Amino acid sequence: MKLKIQNLKTPFENANNPWDIYPRPQMKRDSFFSLCGKWELFLINKNEQNFLGEITIPYPPESRISGIFRNLKEGEKYLYKKSFTLPENFQKNRLLLNFGAVDQIAKVYINDKFLYENVGGYLPFTVDITDYIKDGENKIEVIVTDELDKNLPYGKQRKDRGGMWYTPISGIWQSVWLESVSKNYIKDIKITPTLNSVTIKTAGGLENKIIKYINDGEEISFSYNGDEITFEIENPRHWSPEDPYLYHFELTDGEDRIKSYFALRTVSVGEVDNIPYILLNEKPYFFHGLLDQGYFSDGIYTPFSPEGYINDIKVAKDLGFNMLRKHIKAEPDLFYYYCDKMGMVVFQDFINSGKYHYFFDTVLPTVGMHKRFSFPASKKRKEIFESQAKKLMEYLYNHPSVCYYTIFNEGWGQYDADRIYKEMKAIDPTRIYDSTSGWFFEKESDVQSEHVYFRKIDFKKSYNRPLVLSEFGGYSFKIPENSFNLSKTYGYKNFDTAEDFEKGIKDLYYNEVIPAIEKGLCATVLTQISDVEDETNGLLTYDRQKVKVKKETMTKISDEIKKAFYK
To answer: Which of 109, 110, 203, 465 could bond to 132 as cystine, CB 3.0-4.6 Å?
Structure first.
């Protein structure tokens, strides 16, 4: 049967050069030259090169809005080409070429010279191109290989997409940009807060530094030597979804000047009346969340404009939610900045690798078998997964919105979960770690993480860890004019009308979720914020044109959760 697929337009497709904005708000310099926009794209097949046309960066070539709209086939590679001329007086000393993310393997050339290879697909990387730049016009080339290698992070991409698997993407899918820095520039900044102080640690730069920050409208300035400083904040204002307060600061180091921000926020585990909870700012907090796959009908992995991220966060907040579980995908820095600024907690998944086994990873757990033997992982896959996980944690370390990491989800690629938990917790003890979300629990984890889809939510026993319902629901209501696949529908319980869909969600919360709060439940993740391709189990349609539920219905649920939790 031939599937009937629709191209869905989002409300955000009305801006010119929407990604020509500074992509790294937590380490912002006045030097910025965007390379987003038109590039040339060539197809490499064996020893042949064929021009495919102009592609718009940062959209992956599989997406409609990229201008290419084709899938990469086995044995093929993409070659991106871009010529540029630096603005007059742009270059200070060193010239850095920054990529937000390129999936999966990228080789970077400047003026026909190979400089760097990046392996991964989800995280930013920087190439110092100073010594390879000439006066006048210069040329960047990027050769992309993406075989959906299961040794590398791949998320929910699959070549034979369908159901809970989505269209694979390849190539450049985040911003590309240049910055010029001084010879002795700050290469990294690490911000660690408490509830009344902050420690700022830098890598690179010189010895003498000046920091200025704003507190209660007053500018406070002081100088220090070295690469680390801790200072207290008078009348501290704590970050939370209800009050996402950010302290903005400027750090000067010789000729290098960086603008950034921090927030005073802690997350930990503690007990109240012998019940374990996740604590936000040392108090029990209920994390009322939605699963967020990070897919869009316009650009697949990348929304047409950053407004796509802002809209999702705003809709979630308007419906009473305070958390998004970023599911097996990492996003551009801007997404996390908007969560910081708008007050949306992020439960961040590591990006899985390894094969998915339908029988072992889905069928057996669904019927209640939550214990199994571990599948082996090759040395290569272990090295890449753990390296990428550590880089992800470094990348997100400064974001106050990121409070929680999921290491393995539903057994996909799971191995050595206890060892990895201990190692990651030692690297960053300031977050909560969910070692095995859903099932196949081993011994080490900060939380008891459960997925419930095809049975009643009924937690009868007490746990010695905070209880997290890390996935549930999956209820489907399909609006054909706003749906990607008119031939097939994927969801866990289907409803024919908006009224029945809304009633199903209400019954789920009132009859099953809220009663579980007295058993220690302190975090929930409803599947999901939006439809994704065949999946029609979102509160938003895939094209973000319609919200399927009433605001007053969902905020009333949120109010009832708060009454039950904070009584």
So the answer is: 110
